[in-house]
């Protein structure tokens, strides 16, 4: 029986709202690709990225257009050649991994040549707000080992100082989401260093980040929007110390694994991140998490409810999915 592809859009309410420098949202719109051969079913999930003009609707349409190719024998390797590194490719790539694992009676990590996956410490994200509101949010979770703080440009020194006071014992990383400028870059980095922050993600806009090469970086600077697949790695030299690998940007686990290997050879540290989404997005990213210095796979914790059978979160620890759920 040929493999058949089905695609659907799902909308998952967020607990409260999720606020970054580019705006706020109250639900996570995900696209699920499902492959079945009649005996086994593989699933993958993606989050279309509005910053790159991806919507749930055009992503689902892009995947649906591949139905005939899948029935004609398209596989995971062929997929890399016919779709660019988009969220759409991520959903289908991860569905192929899941299907391959179930057909082989093995785990996806075995197919990738890895040892059994171990639980890891994940960050918990704190949305952008006033110093007072962010400090209040942090006090409620100050027992967590790792907190990721969303920043927004002007006023960030006060925000990070308030957060540090509210969580004196947590490791802090921050994400500026491209909101800083050359004018406030040095001051904001200094404020983060003074607060004991260990890493800052994407302080300057992608493509406008040359200033990072000409200043002293007192803490680790991690590329996020500036890194997608391996082809974009060459643009980071001298500007970044680490990269944040997100499967929705790499176009799936296949490219993410290759990117991680190339980044390590280039002397860059690895962070693995996610969008706000369910455990079905987190499960394949756990393969990258095994080699990452920083793990940010808290997407399901930001939802009002996760997918049934999803991954287990206990405090700051996240555990790999079981074989029935994914991979």
What characteristics describe this protein?
globular; TIM Barrel; Enolase-like, domain 1; 327 residues; 3-stranded antiparallel beta sheet
Give your account of this protein's structure.
With 327 residues, this protein is of the alpha/beta class. The protein folds into two domains: 4-105, Enolase-like, N-terminal domain (Enolase-like, domain 1); 120-318, Enolase-like C-terminal domain (TIM Barrel, Alpha-Beta Barrel), CATH 3.20.20. Helix content is 32%, strand content 22%. The protein has helices at residues 56-64, 67-71, 76-82, 87-104, 108-111, 131-139, 156-166, 182-194, 247-250, 253-265, 279-289, and strands spanning 4-20, 23-36, 41-46, 120-121, 124-126, 146-150, 171-175, 199-201, 220-223, 242-245, 269-272, 294-295, 313-314, 317-318. Strand 6 (146-150), helix 7 and strand 7 form a beta-alpha-beta unit. Helix 6 packs parallel to helix 7 and helix 7 (156-166) runs parallel beside helix 8 (182-194). The chain is globular.
């Amino acid at each position: 029986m040929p493999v058949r592809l089905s695609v659907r859009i799902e909308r998952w309410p967020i607990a409260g709202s999720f606020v970054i420098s580019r705006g706020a949202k109250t639900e996570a719109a995900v696209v699920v690709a499902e492959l079945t051969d009649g005996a086994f079913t593989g699933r993958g999930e993606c989050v279309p990225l509005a910053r790159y003009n991806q919507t749930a609707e055009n992503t689902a349409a892009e995947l649906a257009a591949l139905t005939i190719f899948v029935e004609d024998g398209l596989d995971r390797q062929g997929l890399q050649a016919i779709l660019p590194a988009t969220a759409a490719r991520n959903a289908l790539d991860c569905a192929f991994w899941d299907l391959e694992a179930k057909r082989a009676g093995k785990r996806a990590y075995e197919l990738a040549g890895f040892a059994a996956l171990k639980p890891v410490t994940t960050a918990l994200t704190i949305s952008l707000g006033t110093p007072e509101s962010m400090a209040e949010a942090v006090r409620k979770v100050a027992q967590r080992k790792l907190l990721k703080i969303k920043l927004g440009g002007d006023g960030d020194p006060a925000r990070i100082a308030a957060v540090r006071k509210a969580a004196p014992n947590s490791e802090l990383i921050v994400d500026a989401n491209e909101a800083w400028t050359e004018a406030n870059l040095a001051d904001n980095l200094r404020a983060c260093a003074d607060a004991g922050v260990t890493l800052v993600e994407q302080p300057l806009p992608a493509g406008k980040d040359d200033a990072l090469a000409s200043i002293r970086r007192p803490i680790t600077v991690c590329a996020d929007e500036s890194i997608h697949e391996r082809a974009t790695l060459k643009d980071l030299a001298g500007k970044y110390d680490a990269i944040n690998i997100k499967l929705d940007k790499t176009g799936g686990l296949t490219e993410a694994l290759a990117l991680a290997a190339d980044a390590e050879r280039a002397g860059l540290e690895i962070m693995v991140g996610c969008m706000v989404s369910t455990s079905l997005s987190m499960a394949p990213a756990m393969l990258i998490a095994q080699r990452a210095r920083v793990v940010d796979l808290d997407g399901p914790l930001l939802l009002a409810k996760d997918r049934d059978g999803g991954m287990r979160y206990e405090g700051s620890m996240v555990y790999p999915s079981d074989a029935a759920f994914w991979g």
